[in-house]
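Quick log. Single chain, no ligands specified.
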Amino acid sequence: MKFSISRAVSAIALFAAICSHASETDKANISRVYVDTVAPSEQLAYENAALSYNRCLSEHGFRYSWTAWAHETGPTNQYTWVTGPYTWETFDAFGEADAPCEDVWRKLAGPRLQLEASVFLIEMPELSHVAQSTDEKPALLNVLAFTLKSGAEANDAFVAVQAKIAAAAEKSRWPHYFRFSRVRGGGKDSPDYIVTARYKNWADYGAGPPALWKMVEGVYGKAEAAAMRKTMDDAILVTSAHVESYNAKLSYIPSK
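-> predicted structure:
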């Protein structure tokens, strides 16, 4: 799955990032995401390959889940696969459990791929506003990617504003939910952050974007909200967005 963006990282910033990652090792807040690009003429064969792979996982008692998502906007010949959230340690066991079926995927799905990309997403609850119960899969997922300008200053400013937005949403009990994740390991073209919003159906999505900044104004006032918005805009290099639909047929959910 493809997420990417070039970003210069100083040795000091890199060292700080490594130190912060050490504290994440015991948290079940890591998801792995793949985005596959498939030629339109190969999509049926690709989906059949995914079903064969799922059967292999089931036969080998694979106990981790893969949720499948079809891209509804943007390039529609793409599929997103998500597993997690788990701990970093779990991904070691995950790889061992998946090994018996790797050849099935490579032989059947591999030839159908135009491109495959992968990242890890690290959930950031301090920047998120999520409902109490989110176990049920939404019909649609709006995926917004942020690529920031290079340097720690832009990152720190962006994170500070997002933290205030999340706090305002919690304080005002805003009924529109979003989940922020930091992207790790995506390569030079990967965005820095991903935010997702869930929708029940197209009518729900089509109702229009929620008035986020109006909510922020209600909590902090117009002047501060405007300053926050400018700070965030100044930190962002580029954004992109697309909608995905949950594909229950292709998803692998282990039996309990």
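Confidence is low (pLDDT under 50) at residues 1-23.
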